[in-house]
Amino acid sequence: MRFVLILATFVAFSATAAEAPVDDTIRTEATTNSTVTTDSKTETTLNSPPPSAILPTMNNSNSDLCTVGIAGAVQTQILGLSAGKTVRDMNCERLKLSKTLYDMGMKVAAVSTMCQDKRVFDAMMSAGTPCPYDGMIGDAAKAAWEGDESAQPVDEGKEKGLTDGTKTLLGGAGVAGLLVLLLL
User: CA-to-CA distance for 149 and 167, rounded, in angstroms?
Assistant: First the structure.
């Protein structure tokens, strides 16, 4: 009897579930009315950086070259100038040449290369070890140097007629002239 009751409940529940249609749809109804009015005024201010004269770059580090970089820049409100160049360092070249000759076993040639500098020449003469002269060394070289003073090295600044004071004066006049030109 219990079995019949359970079966009757199950059949009644199944019939009720089958009879009701299932609708999973979600429905929403909405109406929107909008009006947008835009009135804008835009003002842009552009601030630019001040003009600048940039120095040219010259890399002197870790180089085996005997050059020195010289650069300068001047900027006014209207005009900017920059310039740069490299200058050969003759003393550096002389040292490198002398060292190379010495490393190759040519000691007299290395000393002769160094003796092209007036300061080295004078120091060697003062020390009693004169610079080699046309393959001669020692007392023979000393006698040859004393007999031919025109072959002795000349101070490079005096050779060109420029002393340190003259060079400073010319450099200062050049800078002052450039500043006057830029202020015009």
Answer: 27
141 phi and psi, to 5 degrees?
Answer: -65, -40
- Indicate if the pLDDT at residue 23 is higher than 80: no
Report the amino acid identity of residue 9: T
Model confidence, pTM: 0.51
Two structure tokens written together for 11 = 């059949």
Q: How far apart are CA 90 and CA 41, in angstroms?
A: 68
The residue ranking higher by pLDDT, 1 or 180, is 180
pLDDT digits (tens, 9 = 90+) for 40-59: 888 888 777 777 777 777 66
Specify whether the CB–CB gap between 64 and 47 falls below 8 A.
no
Is residue 133 within 8 Å of residue 145, measured between CB atoms? yes
How far apart CA 73 and CA 57 sit, in angstroms, is: 12
d(CA 137, CA 132): 5
Number of Cβ atoms within 10 Å of the Cβ of 75: 15
CA distance 112 to 131: 6
Distance CA 117, CA 122 (A): 9
pLDDT-based confidence at residue 103 (cuts at 50, 70, 90): very high
